[in-house]
């Protein structure tokens, strides 16, 4: 079954009070903020954050950035900002690099359990700007209370060589998928990354819903490999093909 929608939250099958962790590459930050904007516009309260690091400029897409490391008044500030804007980004502290340190997974758990907001949306993985990544043994950092894990990849990588240019942690990627150095990233190889126990869903909490989101479909010219990829993945878990840029999503179930 396949259908199209312009509703991102619905494409991902979100339910009331979900705790969403985004992993992989190819658009996690973009999805996080698009989702937060939508949920806020629909009247929900939202917190965005990361368990890794984020550029301060990116975090500022939220109406307010609250730093846990700024002192004991941070929680009070957060409550005030949420009262006013219904949406904030929470981080740990400012780093010299211009990035913000994220929050610990246990703080994410606490914020979720304390029902501070309706939705908590986290970037739980880093991809160094590449559309595809393989997780190291200590990645991603998904809080235990996450109810949804969205594993992402950027579709512009399909057919490109499996090298550092397109794949973050390329060596680990080849270990996991059996791809050879420089081999074209074929559908079957990307599917292995998504389906491997130590692949993109590594560390997914037991009860969390798993969603595969293949983004940047607007950059795909030849649909043959895309159809092949859908053929392998569809029916196994919720699969979304889309373009956050164009705001259009295809849901395969
Ligand atoms: N063409 C296209 N570019 C996108 C889309 N979504 C995100 N991008 C771009 O892809 C790059 C990586 O996105 P980002 O959200 O930072 O990915 P992350 O590394 O997974 O957090 C950025 O330059 C985005 O503007 C999309 O749907 N289509
Ligand atoms: Mg990012």
Number of strands: 14
CATH architecture: 3-Layer(aba) Sandwich
Q: Beta-sheet strand percentage?
A: 15-25%
Write down the Rg: 18 Å
Helix content: 25-40%
Order of helices and strands: EHEHEEHEHEEHEEEEHHEHEE
Describe this structure in words.
The protein is α/β, with parallel strands linked by helices. It has one domain: Rossmann fold (3-Layer(aba) Sandwich). It has helices spanning 8-11, 28-41, 56-59, 74-85, 105-113, 170-177, 187-195, 224-233, and strands spanning 2-5, 19-24, 46-50, 53-55, 65-67, 87-91, 99-101, 119-123, 132-133, 148-154, 167-168, 209-215, 238-243, 248-252. Strand 5, helix 4 and strand 6 (87-91) form a beta-alpha-beta unit. Helix 7 packs parallel to helix 8. It is globular and about 50 Å long. The model has no long low-confidence stretch (mean pLDDT 96). Bound molecules: guanosine-5'-diphosphate and magnesium ion.
SSE blueprint:
Blueprint: E1 2-5, H1 8-11, E2 19-24, H2 28-41, E3 46-50, E4 53-55, H3 56-59, E5 65-67, H4 74-85, E6 87-91, E7 99-101, H5 105-113, E8 119-123, E9 132-133, E10 148-154, E11 167-168, H6 170-177, H7 187-195, E12 209-215, H8 224-233, E13 238-243, E14 248-252
Parallel strand pairs: 2-8, 2-10, 3-6, 3-8, 5-6, 9-11, 10-12, 12-13
Antiparallel strand pairs: 1-14, 4-7, 13-14
Helix pairs in contact: 7-8
Bound molecules: guanosine-5'-diphosphate (GDP) and magnesium ion (MG).
